[in-house]
Write a structure and sequence with these properties.
single chain, alpha/beta, Rossmann fold, Dihydrodipicolinate Reductase, domain 2
Length: about 240
C-alpha cells in the first residue's frame, strides 16, 4: 500500500492523536501546522509540505479559512472541526471554483454513522407512538468549544425528520469525556435509549485517517462524507 502524505492543521488533542496513529494507516505526516505557524506562514503548497491530503482539526472560527486555503493550494482536505456549518455554502462555492475535493464529518466514528441510521429507523417507528417524548443528551470534555456538538445536531436532524416533531438537546461539558450521545425515547411507564459512547478519541483519529486515504484516492470533486468512506447509503447533514 502506497503511503499517503498528510498535512495536519491543528495540533491540539485530535491533531496529536492523528499524528500518533498515522503510520498504522500507511500515512506519512509531512507538515504539522499549529495556530502559531498558520498565522506566521499561512497555508500554501509549500507549508503543506507537498501533501496529498490535509486533515483540519482546529477551531470553529478558523476551519473554513484553513480549508479554503488548502483547496486553493490544490490539496484536498478532510475537515473535522465542527461549529462552522452556517458557512457551508462558502465551502461549496470554493469547491466549485477550484474543482477541489473535501470531506467533512461531525464525527469520524463508524459507530456514530450506524447510530445515525438507527435513529432514522427509530424515528419512523416511534412516529406512531406519540406517548413517547424524544430528547437527546450529549456529553463532552470541558475543552470542547461548540455546544451542541456537530454530531448531536446531525442526530437531532435525522430524528426530527423521521419522527415528525422537535427533539431538544441537552449539552453537558464535564471532565475528559471523549463523547457520548444518547437519544432517549420516554413514555410514562417505559423508555428506550439509543446510545453511542466513545471510549477513546483514537476512534475519531482512526476514522479521520481512513477518510484521508479515501479522499486522496478519489478523483470525484465536491464535498464528501463518511458515508462515502464506509460505503453506507446514509444522508449526512451538511454533506449535500
Amino acid at each position: 500500500m502506497t503511503a499517503v502524505r498528510v498535512a495536519l492543521i491543528g495540533m491540539g488533542r485530535m491533531g496529536r492523536a492523528i499524528d500518533a496513529l498515522a503510520t498504522e494507516h500507511d500515512c506519512t505526516i509531512v507538515a504539522r501546522l499549529d495556530r502559531v505557524r498558520v498565522a506566521r506562514e499561512g497555508i500554501t503548497r509549500e507549508t503543506l509540505g507537498g501533501a496529498d491530503v490535509a486533515i483540519e482539526f482546529s477551531v470553529p472560527d478558523a476551519a473554513l479559512g484553513n480549508a479554503t486555503a488548502c483547496l486553493r493550494a490544490g490539496v484536498p482536505v478532510v475537515i473535522g472541526t465542527t461549529g462552522w456549518l452556517d458557512q457551508l455554502d462558502v465551502l461549496h462555492e470554493t469547491l466549485r471554483e477550484t474543482k477541489g475535493r473535501a470531506l467533512w464529518a461531525p464525527n469520524f466514528s463508524p459507530g456514530v454513522q450506524l447510530m445515525l441510521a438507527l435513529v432514522e429507523v427509530a424515528g419512523r417507528l416511534f412516529r406512531h407512538a406519540p406517548s413517547f417524548d424524544a430528547h437527546l443528551v450529549e456529553t463532552h470534555h470541558t475543552a470542547k468549544l461548540d455546544a451542541p456538538s456537530g454530531t448531536a445536531i446531525a442526530v437531532q436532524a435525522r430524528t426530527e425528520r423521521a419522527l415528525g416533531r422537535a427533539v431538544p438537546i441537552t449539552s453537558i461539558r464535564a471532565g475528559s469525556v471523549p463523547g457520548t450521545h444518547e437519544l432517549l425515547l420516554d413514555a410514562p411507564f417505559e423508555s428506550v435509549a439509543i446510545t453511542h459512547t466513545a471510549r477513546d478519541r483514537r476512534v475519531f483519529a482512526d476514522g479521520a485517517l481512513a477518510a484521508a486515504r479515501w479522499l486522496g484516492a478519489t478523483s470525484r470533486p465536491g464535498l464528501h462524507s463518511m458515508r462515502d468512506v464506509l460505503g453506507l447509503g446514509l444522508t449526512q447533514e451538511g454533506s449535500e
